[in-house]
Structures are given as structure tokens and as C-alpha cells.
Amino acid sequence: MADSAANPGVQPKPSVEHGQEPRPDERMVEDLAYRRQRPIVQALFCALTILAILLVLNQQFNLALFSGIVFIDNLYLFLLVAFTLPLVFLAYPATSRLERFGRVLGLPAHDWLIAIAVLAALLWFATKSNVILGEGWEFAAPPPAQWLGLLLWLLILESLRRTGGTPITLIVLAISLYPVVADIMPGPIKGVQTSFLDTMAYHIVSAESAFGIPMRAFGEIVIGFIVFGVALNHTGGGKFFNDVAFALVGRWRGGAAQVGVISSALQGSISGSVISNVISSGVVTIPAMKRTGFRGDYAGGVEAVASTGAVLMPPVMGSTAFVMASFLGISYTEIALAAAIPALLFYFGLSVQIDAYAARLGLRGMRPDELPRLGETLRQGWLYILVFVVLVFLMVSEQREATAPFAATALLLLINQLLPRNRLTWASLVELLAAIGRALAELVAILAGVGFIIGAFSMTGLAGTLANDLVYLAGDNALILLLMGALTSFIFGMGMTVTACYIFLAIVLAPPLVKAGLDPLAVHLFIMYWGMISFITPPVALAAFAAAPLARTSPFAIGFQAVRLGAIIYIVPFFFVLNPALILKGTPWEVAEVLLTAFPGVALIASALQGYVLWGGRLDGSAQRVLARVLLLVGGFALAAPGGRLIPVDNTLLAAIGVACAAAAFILLRLAGKTELQTAA
């Protein structure tokens, strides 16, 4: 996409100089370039955003703002998408070349026409919502619904291309047309054929396609967390999280990198966007790491890995966890509790690696005069602590997952306006609404587009048969199925957002894994983890590419560092899917036994990967130290790996093997140290 010099109508991603603090409006950075808008266009953009928010508030709080209208599910979703999807075409350009032609109020005329067409078509379907249900249009839609369905199918695909990229659009395009040719496909993927126009109508009017589970999760729960995340960052929450992290661990050995871990975990858990997290947190943490002796590629790798893992970190976990709750039919709280231990293992392993790296190179922490004072930071940021506590309390204790973020946002904005420090002006309030609108529009486009995949499988009956076929190909071998699942998740994660990848795999891959006898929640977390791995794994490594300008080094160098730093994220999903005790599924003794061995095991693995172990020193140089490194790696896997299912050894014996390997390694390191002292003498 052309830069702003070549195309003054497009707002590029914020570019921040080395060590410079981002403006408040840049702390929640969209992943895509968006247009600068004239005041009248921005006013329309904000008006549609306000309408969408009012519609959701009316639905969630039963406000009866629209007297006499009963908002059945399809009417509510048609209107919600009608107010948000046109924003894609007002905010995100098709291509830089088309920006110069036929401009009206600063925007190309064709984008105005597309936005109006989307709004009009969805409003027409909204007026027919009762008829759609009463007359069964998903099976026998009249011609107007078929042709308008075709129009919306095309425009949703275009909105997906602008927000999600070309790869995912091509995948959705191909699969959404599958019902048209299902009868001529080869045996395992053969299905019931449907005419082209009937397929188009089904995608729009059915509760199983564009307006299916993902969109319902968006309308019922996700939208509130998007509003909360944007508001938090626009009121200075991002800077507060960074300052707290600096005050807590900045003085530690390698403290600047530990700051990156903590601040990224806090911010990313709310924003749900890996790229936004890298930019908003990394603009502070990466320069700080480099100033304290970390290489640029290592600093970028730390930020990329920490930002990727943040989406897996309770209590919020971005939007994907709420979609998962809808798929599984369980509460979000249950998912957050299950995800807590794997996420802590991941961050614990990353923190141990950073400490080992800093110890091996003799790096120190930051000077006290460079760091904010914790007491002062907490006093100034009490507002963010309060709203976060309120949010978690309402979600966990009161079970109000849909309304909690709105209540927390209202409290945040109310108190923020009473305080002078980050008080929103009229201009910054408009920027806040515009940022919310862009975030909503982007996610609506992705969810509607990926919903076509669900619709195609639902129409043809493939969703049920595909599970049986995959189980048959794997020969009922759970490990082979998991390896197939990991590879599939990784590949699809290259071209999709986290949420889109999860939805696709939850339809295609989760059923056969569950059919093989694995725990459903563990399976869904497994595919979520592996769908995110492409963010740090070359050649894609989007998080590494986002960190590269801040670290001023090669994205591939960052990517290769990120693979080693994020090694735990590759193996932990196998551990908890084979032993659900890691996600708190089991007896108290089983859970305690696994936790007692998993954390030491991860610590040994992380130390071996970085070549330094606490109380043992370096793990390179002499043959004794290299052998100790191998023993620590083996011992770590023995402690952390689950026994009993695929490993024909129970957890107790595995733990004994792990302890023996670790003990042998430390004995070797002690002998190596004595030998080196004698040689030096």
C-alpha cells in the first residue's frame, strides 16, 4: 500500500521514532493502514459507530430505546452489521491506485456507492427478518433475497480482503462456493449440491453462515471488550501498564526485557491483537532493551513472543475466547480458568530464558533513575486498577460477561473526565469513536467472511462427515491427529487472524480430535495455540515484521530468535491436550502433581535452550557442560510431559527420571567448574 507521501488520503500505521512515547491515539494501533477523513465523513463514521453501540446497549441492558420493536436475533444482527460493515469501505482503501479517481468528500465515489449498497441491502433484510424465519428463506428464498444475497456475498468478500488480506479471502471464496460443486467432488468431500443463487441466499439469511455462531458471539459479548480495550488505551492505560512493569522488574538482571513480557501480557490480554500489542508496547520496551545491552534481534524477539502469548492470557484473552465459549456452550470464566496455567507456563518459560540470556552475557538491569517509582505510578494509575478490578469482578463473580465491559468502560470514562491528566477533549473523543468504529468494522468483516465457511459445511453436510474421514485417515491415533492438527493450524494461521483461524479449525479439526477421545476444551485451546504460532515462526512471523522497524534489524533475525524464545508455546499445547490436568480438569491430586512437575520442567527446558542455568552457570564450552545441557533438556521434558496416554510411563516415574537427569546435569556442571578452576590455577 502506498505511503502517505504518495497518497495523502491514506493514514499509514503510526511510525514512532526510537524511544519516543506514542500519542494516546496511537496506543491502540489498527493492523491495517486507514484513511484520513474529512470532518463531515468522520462525523458520519462516528454516527454509525454510535448507532451500533446504542443498538448493542439496548440489547444487552434491555433499555427499550426503540419502542415497539422486538429485536429477534436475525433482526439485531442485520442491523448491527448494517451499521458497522459500511465503515470498512469508508476507512480502508481498496488499493492506493484507486484512491485518486472520482473523489467525493475526499473518498473515491465507488466506496461511497459500496457503503450505501451494503447499508441498503442489510436494512432490507432487517425489514424481512420475521418473514425470513416464518417462511424458511434459508431453504427457499425468493429471487430478491437471492440477488441481494449475491450482492452482499461479493461485498463481504471485498471487506474481508481489505481487512484480513488476500490469502484468507481466496480461501473463503473457494470454500463458500463449495456447495455449488459439492456433488462432483471426490468421495471423502462429496456433499449435497445447491444452486448458486440458493447458496448466496443461504449465506446471508441462514443462522449457520455469515450470521452464525461467530457473529452472534460478536453481537452478544465481543463488542463490549473491543470498546473497553480502545477506551483503555485512549485514556492512557497502555502507558500505565508499561510504567508498572518498569517499576516492578526494571532493576532485575535483563529487567528491560522482563518489562516487555509483563506489559505485553497486560495490554495484549485486553486488545486481542498481536500486531497492535507489538507496536504499542514495543515502542517503549524494545529501545529500553537495546539500551541495556540486548541485541536488536533478541529485543524484537522478546516483544514478538510476549505479544503473541498475550492473546492467550486471562482474564480477557482478546475476542477469540468468547467465540470459543459460544462453540463449546460453556461460560467464558471456565475457559479463562482453564487457560491460566498454560499461559503462566508460557510466560514463566519466556522469563527464565530472558534471565538466562542476561546472566550468560552479564547484562544488568536498568538504573533506578531511569525507572518510574511504583508507588507514584500506582497512585496516578489507580483508575486503571479500579476499572480492571470491576471488570474481572463482574465477569467472574457476577457472571455478567456481556455487560461487564460496558460498565467498566462507563466507569473509566466518567472518572477519566473528572481527572485532568488524560481528560478527553472533543477532538480526542472523536478519535476514540473513530478507533472503535475501525475496530468493530474490521472484526465484523472477518467474522462475516469466515462465517461463509461454516455455512458451506452446514449446507453440504460435510461438517459431520469430515470428522469421520480425518479420524479414519489417522487410524484412530490421537498423536497423528494432533500432529495433523498442529500443522493445519500453523498453515491456516499464516493467512488468517487469530479469531478467523480458530473459527475455521473449530469447525474442521476440533470434531475429529474430540471424536478421538480428547477433552473438548483442551482441543479448542490446542488449535487456538497452534493457530497463533505463525505470528512468531518464519517465513510469515507477522509479529517479527511488526517489531523489526522498532528494533531496527531484520525481521527474519527476529523471527528465528522468537522461535527459540517461544519454544514453550510449541510444546505446552501437546502437554495439556494429552493431560487435561494442566487445564484444571482432574482430581485435586492430579492437578497438583502436574503443576509440581510442569513448572520445574519448563524452567529446565528454557535454561537448556538459552545455554545457562541458575546455580549451574554456562552450558557451553567443555564436553561436560554440553552433556549437562542435553541432560537438562531431557530432564525438563520428563518433568513437564504428561505420562500415561502416549508415553507408556506414569507421571511419578517420569518425574523421577526428570529429577535424576537434572541431578546428573548439576553434578557434571560442578565437576566442570572444578576442572576449569584447576586449569586456570
Primary descriptors:
681 residues, mainly alpha, two-stranded antiparallel sheet, two-stranded antiparallel ribbon, 2% strand, disordered N terminus
Rounded mean pLDDT score: 83
Categorize the overall geometry: globular
Oligomer: single chain
Number of strands: 6
Radius of gyration: 26 Å
Largest sheet: 2 strands, antiparallel
Kindly report how far apart the N and C termini lie. 63 Å
Structural class: mainly alpha
Enumerate how many helices there are, as a single number: 30
How are the strands of the biggest sheet laid out side by side? 1-2
List low-pLDDT spans.
1-32
The percent range for strand residues is: under 5%
Q: How are the secondary structure elements laid out?
A:
Elements: E1 10-11, E2 34-35, H1 39-61, H2 73-91, E3 103-104, E4 107-108, H3 109-127, H4 129-135, H5 143-164, H6 166-176, H7 178-181, H8 196-205, H9 213-234, H10 237-249, H11 255-271, H12 274-291, H13 296-310, H14 320-328, H15 332-361, H16 374-380, H17 382-397, H18 404-418, H19 426-460, H20 462-474, H21 478-495, H22 498-508, H23 510-515, H24 520-532, H25 542-551, H26 555-565, H27 567-578, H28 588-610, E5 612-613, E6 617-618, H29 623-640, H30 651-680
Antiparallel strand pairs: 1-2, 3-4, 5-6
Brief rundown of the structure:
By secondary structure, the chain is mainly α. Helix content is 70%, strand content 2%. It has 30 helices and six strands.
